Amino acid sequence: MPALLQSRDIWTHGGGWPLPDLLRSALTSLLLLQGHDRPVYFASPWITDFDLFDNRFRDYAALFPRLAEHPWIRFSDYVALLSASFDVRLLTTDNERSSAFMSTASLKAAPRLSCRLGDSKFHEKGILAPSFYIEGSMNITHHGVRVRGEKVIYHSVAGAGVPPKIAAAYLEFDRHWKTLG
């Protein structure tokens, strides 16, 4: 079956559960894949650490055995674990918040994590992976995910191959990555 792209618009209207739930589901799916030749991109002018997975009832203990007893699993812990299976590329700007995020201990030890900084005009926002693309107004921050009213479009890949939307997004992200190198 050729690759199909299914899309869904999500509006949060000042917080709520749809966006955190979408992120948890999409990002968890990457942990179940056994690596890929394409990198995973996280692009946002501001990137901060935030509680991503509610593990109070050990729902994510099997995916994060080292953090099994932690009530919350942070975004930085997720990115560090993901970098064991994928090349993870962060595109952000040189600001206090993103610098603090990149300074977390788990990210400093992440094996396949790279970061490149755009200038103050950089405003791209999205998460691009081989199996999905999330694009829209959301910064990858606590406020972007949980507080502010945001609109994102979730594109998911079904079947084998690469749909044109995902291929075009990879061309653009890869181009931007090389430009900042």
Can I get a quick summary?
The chain is α+β, with helices and mostly antiparallel strands and 181 residues long.
By DSSP (H or I, 4+ residues per run), the number of helices equals 6
Kindly report the name of the CATH homologous superfamily: Endonuclease Chain A
DSSP strand content: 25-35%
CATH class: Alpha Beta
Low-confidence stretches: none
The average pLDDT score comes to: 91
Q: Given the helix and strand composition, which structural class is it?
A: alpha+beta
Main sheet strand line-up: 1-9-8-7-2-5-6
Distance between the termini: 37 Å
Based on Cα principal axes, name the global outline: globular
Q: Can you summarize the main beta sheet?
A: 7 strands, mixed
CATH topology: Endonuclease, Chain A
Based on DSSP secondary structure assignment, what is the total number of beta strands?
Answer: 9
Oligomeric nature of the chains: single chain
What would your notes on this structure say?
This protein has helices at residues 18-32, 75-82, 96-102, 105-108, 142-147, 164-180, and strands spanning 4-11, 40-43, 51-54, 72-74, 88-93, 113-118, 126-129, 132-136, 151-158. The chain has 181 residues and is an alpha+beta fold. The chain has a single domain (4-180), classed as Endonuclease Chain A (Endonuclease, Chain A), CATH 3.30.870. The strands form two sheets. It has a seven-stranded mixed beta sheet with strand order 1-9-8-7-2-5-6, sandwiched between helices. Strand 7 and strand 8 form a beta hairpin. It is globular. The model has no long low-confidence stretch (mean pLDDT 91).
